[in-house]
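Tip: read the tokens left to right.
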């Protein structure tokens, strides 16, 4: 019980401190692009019918060396573009049809670079005591699909979120008593005399 009181007192004294003492995490999918803008520029440079495997390697897109670059075959390309029976081959872009028709000569490169950082914000004493937890996530995410036939790009597709910004707020009016598990449960158990 004394430890719990000491923890509460310390947390309250630190209440005026900046939120940078709260936990934070960061995550990044390794790849050839350091930012959304760089990935987008590389995508714009790629020209179907002009860009070959050598040029892709110059851009850092190489299945032998680029981390997290997924290589898919023509069967997987069909699954991507025809996820249900309602979509048929004739509904697809002619370049995609040609790639699927080339069978084993068709290969897809899938790149999904991203980076994110999560920071707990808000009042430190409310966070430490479990009354209120605020979290902010920032970052970016992109997805690039390239189809190649005989080492020549024939089709490209891009999607992404240039700026991810999400905030969440979790409130527990009863603080540590809200979830009677772990440290809070141990403190309460220690305060109740045993018969």
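Filled-in amino acids:
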């Amino acid at each position: 019980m004394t430890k719990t009181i000491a923890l509460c007192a310390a947390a309250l004294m630190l209440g005026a401190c900046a939120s940078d003492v709260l936990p934070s995490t960061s995550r990044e999918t390794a790849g050839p692009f350091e930012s959304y803008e760089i990935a987008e520029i590389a995508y714009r440079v790629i020209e179907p019918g002009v860009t070959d495997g050598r040029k892709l390697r110059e851009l850092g897109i190489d299945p032998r060396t680029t981390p997290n670059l997924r290589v898919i075959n023509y069967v997987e390309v069909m699954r991507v573009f025809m996820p249900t029976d309602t979509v048929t081959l004739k509904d697809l872009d002619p370049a995609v049809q040609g790639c699927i028709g080339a069978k084993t000569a068709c290969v897809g490169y899938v790149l999904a670079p991203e980076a994110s950082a999560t920071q707990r914000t808000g009042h430190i004493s409310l966070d430490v005591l479990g009354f209120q937890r605020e979290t902010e996530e920032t970052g970016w995410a992109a997805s690039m699909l390239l189809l190649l036939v005989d080492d020549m790009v024939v089709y490209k597709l891009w999607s992404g979120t240039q700026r991810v910004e999400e905030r969440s707020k979790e409130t527990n009016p009863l603080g540590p008593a809200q979830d009677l598990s772990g440290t809070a449960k141990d403190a309460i158990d220690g305060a109740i005399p045993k018969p």
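Residues 15-19 have pLDDT under 50 and may be disordered. The radius of gyration is 26 Å.
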